Each structure stands twice: as C-alpha cells, then as structure tokens.
Amino acid sequence: MNGWWRRGDAIVAEFSPQEAAILRGLVGQLREMLTARAEEAPQDELSALTGIRTGPSTPPDERVLRRLLPDFHRPPEGEELTPGEADSAAALRSMHEPEVVDLKTGVAGVVLATCPPDGGRIRLDDEQASAWLAALNDVRLALGTVLEVSDDMPEELPEDDPRQPHLSVYHWLTVVQDTLVHGLTVD
C-alpha cells in the first residue's frame, strides 16, 4: 500500500494480499466483538411494544469495547457519579449504545465489502472513504488499547517485547488512515 490517491470521483489504493488479510482480519474481529455486545442487550417488553431498541445499561467488561463504547456521561477526574447521575448514565447508554454499535458495524461492513480478500485495487467513493476512515479509527483505537499505546511510547519497541510486531501494524494503520485523509482532501 503506497497510499491513497484521487482518480476523478474515486479514492484509489493498491493493497497487497497480506495487507488486505490483516485489515480484513482486524476489521472482522472488531465487528464480531461489537455484534456480540449488541446481542447481550436485554430484550424488554417496552422495547418490543414501542419498537425502540435498547442496549445494555452497564459499560462493557472488556477493555477494548470500553474504549470503543465509552460512557456517555463521566464525572470530572477524581469525582464519582451521584446516584442520579449514575442512573442517567445507564439510561443514556441503554438508549444510545445500539445506534453507536450499528454505526460501527456498518462502517466495518463497508471495509469488508470493498477490500478484496486477495488484495488488489480498491476504489472508493467519498461516502465509502468516510466509512473506511471511521473503521480504521476504530481498529486503531482497539489495537492501541491492547498495545497500551501512550504519548510517551517509543516508535519502536525492543525486539523481545511481544508487542513489537503488532506496533508495526498499528503504525501501518496510521499511515493508511493518514493517506486516506489526504486523498479525500486533495482536489
């Protein structure tokens, strides 16, 4: 992958078979995690009656999902939520998490539908490119959480650090995302 470029109304890139496999694998895993979270949602009579879908009222236990589905209301640093605020936070999560999960699984679906399994040329319209940006961001957030990426983390880790090969993938995803932003903004 040498970057994205604009060709008329399309944003174009070439992905090797290995690059496509890595991207499809990461996006697919993320979509599976989000789908499993959605399936955990309680089914209640009010939802069935009104057609309003609700989700879990508690944050995910898994730290990657907690990063992708943060609380809708958090207290200031060092403070606790009051009981009323905690109830409001739970209600906000229950009401809005299904929509967030749908958006995230939707953009993942666009990547999986437009990235050929064996690599090759990818041609996206602006809407698909925006979906790719959102999905790449989600994958980078997830991988960054697993790798515990921080501002003070070096660009390269020692050879014996088990995170080193995955950090290279994280950096590659950053380049893919950055060049896609550039491809979208260049006339």
Structure notes:
By secondary structure, the protein is mainly α. Helix content is 59%, strand content 7%. The chain contains 6 helices and 3 strands. It has a 3-stranded antiparallel β-sheet. Strand 1 and strand 2 (10-15) form a beta hairpin.
SSE inventory with pairings:
Elements: E1 5-7, E2 10-15, H1 17-39, H2 45-50, H3 63-68, H4 83-114, E3 120-124, H5 126-147, H6 164-185
Antiparallel strand pairs: 1-2, 2-3
Helix pairs in contact: 1-4, 4-5, 5-6
A few lines on this structure:
With 187 residues, the protein is mostly helical. It contains six helices and three strands. Strand 1 and strand 2 (10-15) form a beta hairpin.
β-strand percent reads: 5-15%
Stretches where pLDDT is under 50 for at least 5 consecutive residues are: none
- Helicity range: 55-70%
Strand segment tally = 3
Strand order across the biggest sheet?
1-2-3
Task: Give the H and E element order.
Answer: EEHHHHEHH
**What is the typical, i.e. mean, pLDDT?**
89
For the largest beta-sheet, the strand count, sense and barrel status come to: 3 strands, antiparallel
Alpha-carbon distance between the termini?
Answer: 21 Å
Structural class: mainly alpha
Q: Calculate Rg over CA atoms.
A: 19 Å
Question: What is the 3D form?
Answer: globular
SS summary, helix count: 6
Structural key phrases:
globular, mainly alpha, 187 residues
